[in-house]
């Protein structure tokens, strides 16, 4: 028996156990029944941080149909502005 990974466009990735070499290229999603394509991933991906795995799954899921956004993303609290140190060369420059 071997573990094969499939991905539904609506429900994400899921695993299927089948005999070695018998996995078809696509099967029905257990949640919705639509065709889920077989995907190939590197072994030992469980070491991937959960937040990164979720971000990759979200990017994959919304690749063809982006999420609908209803508001702008929050602005960072502190806008960073570049402050140049006043070196002797900069001090000689004319000021506005
Ligand atoms: Zn599905």
UniProtKB/TrEMBL annotation:
InterPro entries: Regulatory_FmdB_Zinc_ribbon (IPR013429)
Domain Putative regulatory protein FmdB zinc ribbon residues, every copy: 1-41
Pfam family, one: Zn_ribbon_8
Region annotation Disordered: where it falls in the sequence: 61-96
Skewed-composition ranges (Low complexity): 84-96
Protein name as catalogued: Putative regulatory protein FmdB zinc ribbon domain-containing protein
